[in-house]
Structures are given as C-alpha cells and as structure tokens.
Amino acid sequence: MSAKDNGPGYSSSTPQEQDDGSANSCCVMALVFISYLVAACTLPFSLFYIIKVVQEYERAVIFRMGRLLPGPAKGPGVFFILPCIDSFTTVDLRTVSFDVPPQEILSKDSVTIAVDAVVYFRVMNPTISITNVEHYKHSTELLAQTTLRNILGTKSLGEILSDREQISHSIQSILDEATDPWGVKVERVEVKDVKLPVQLQRAMAAEAEASREARAKVIAAEGERNASRALKEAADVIAESPSALQLRYLQTLSAISAEKNSTIIFPLPIEMMAQWTK
C-alpha cells in the first residue's frame, strides 16, 4: 500500500529515521545552548566572533551545523552568528564581468577563426548561488566558452562579421536560461574581436581592392559618357551659329596668353578659312 492510500497523516519515513531525526534535533539544540553559554561566559571577547558586518552590495548565507538556516540571506549591515557551530559565506551582488578567452572556431563555411567575448552577470539569489552550484563564477565562465563555440559554429564568416549584435543576444539568452537555476542573471554579452588567418586577410584585402577599382572604372566610364554627350550638345549649338565658334576661339586664345608663353598665336578670321575651304 502506498503512502497516498494511508491518508494524509501517514509518514513515509521509517521509525529508525524518525528516531535519528529526533536525536539530531536534540543534539543541535544542545550545541546551540552550549554555544550561547560559551558566548555569554567569554564576553566581551566573544563579540569579535559573534558580530559580523556585510556591505550594502553583499549578502551572507549562514549555515548551522552544515544546514542552511531558514529565511533569506543576511545583510546588509550587522548580523550575529554563534561561535563554533555557525559558518557563513559572503556573496557579492554587483555586476561582474569576465573575458572569454579566444576560442578557435570552425565556421559554417569551413573557416578557422579566433573569437573572444566579454560577459556581464550578477547574482540574483545568493542562497541558490551557494547551495546549487560550486563556484558559480567559474561555472558561468566555462558555460560561456562552450556556448560561444556552439553558436558561432553554426554561422558563416560573413554572418559572424556583420551580425555581431544578433549573435551576442543569442548567446546572452542561452546563458541566462542555463544559469537561472544557479541564481545568476546574465545581463549582457559582447563579441569583442574576430581574428582571421593572415592568408584570409590578404585575400579579403585583395578582393576589396579589386572591387574598389571596378567601381572607380565604372564611375570614370560614366563620367566620360556624360562628358561626350555634353560635347556633342555643345558642338550642335556651335554649328547652328558660326559666330559662336569665333567667340570660343577668342576665349581659348585669352586662356593661352594668360600663361606667359613665349609663343604668340595670331588667329585667322573664320570667314577667311571658310573661303579657303570653298
């Protein structure tokens, strides 16, 4: 018969376990009484051990005889512990940052690159960060390294170089979900640098230079085409009025004479040249 069938008053623990729990409770109560007695007998020297202070940005998680005390973490300010039976761990609640070492990553298009990042996180629940994981900061660092490799391994080189913000948001959401049972909140992830192989850098530089030269040639060709159209239109206008050609000839002569040249050019009348052509 299961415990559910025996009614709400039924306890699944055996009589031996109940006796052990009662014995432990009695032992803890006796040790607490002795600890109070020792603290009272050694006053005021025991105050140096009993009174503890944590800063505004810190919290203290207290354990008594290896068991977590009920209630939230202590702090900020002054709190008391019992000598010999109490121990505590201080947790910093400020935002902490760490650098993810450069990770050798093979991108989706089979390019080997080295990527590093920086992660910002803080502790949301001090009690869980102590009881649910050992060294929450070190665990978060290792998880950030593996997540960075896994995410970037599914991206091509072009996506890694152009979509850094989206990649950072993806890594941040995955880390935040994974560290939530640890009482840790990942606030921000930034991809710092992407290091490419030297041969690939040279190839990309050559490709960019060739692209710039091609654009320059296209722009020059368009300029020549526009200039030729303008010359054609000017020639049509001059052809309609013979005096306009004479005026243009005089303007050119004025521009040449302004350069202090030793050669003097005397223009011939256009009408005389027209007679010769006839």
Structure description:
The protein has three domains: 26-92, no CATH class; 96-196, Band 7 domain (Tetrahydropterin Synthase, Chain A, 2-Layer Sandwich), CATH 3.30.479.30; 203-277, no CATH class. It is built from nine helices and eight strands. It has helices spanning 15-41, 47-50, 126-131, 136-152, 157-162, 164-179, 198-240, 242-257, 270-277; strands at residues 51-54, 58-64, 67-68, 77-80, 86-92, 96-106, 112-123, 184-195. It has a three-stranded antiparallel β-sheet. The longest helix has 43 residues, at 198-240. The termini are far apart. The model is unreliable at 1-13 (pLDDT under 50).
TL;DR?
Its main location: membrane. The chain is of the alpha+beta class.
Features:
3-stranded antiparallel β-sheet; 3 domains; 8 strands; alpha+beta; disordered N terminus; single chain; Tetrahydropterin Synthase, Chain A; 9 helices; 278 residues
Say how many strands there are: 8
CATH-wise, what's the superfamily of the largest domain?
Band 7 domain
Overall 3D shape: rod-shaped
Strand order of the largest sheet: 3-2-5
- Contiguous low-pLDDT stretches (5 residues minimum) are 1-13
- Helix and strand composition category: alpha+beta
What is the CA-based Rg, rounded? 42 Å
State the separation between the terminal residues, measured CA to CA. Answer: 131 Å
List the total number of helices: 9
CATH topology of the largest domain: Tetrahydropterin Synthase, Chain A
Order of helices and strands: HHEEEEEEEHHHHEHHH
Query: Sheet with the most strands?
Result: 3 strands, antiparallel
CATH top level of the largest domain is: Alpha Beta
Number of domains: 3
> Which percent range fits the helix content?
40-55%
| Binned strand content | 15-25%
Under the CATH scheme, the architecture of the largest domain is 2-Layer Sandwich
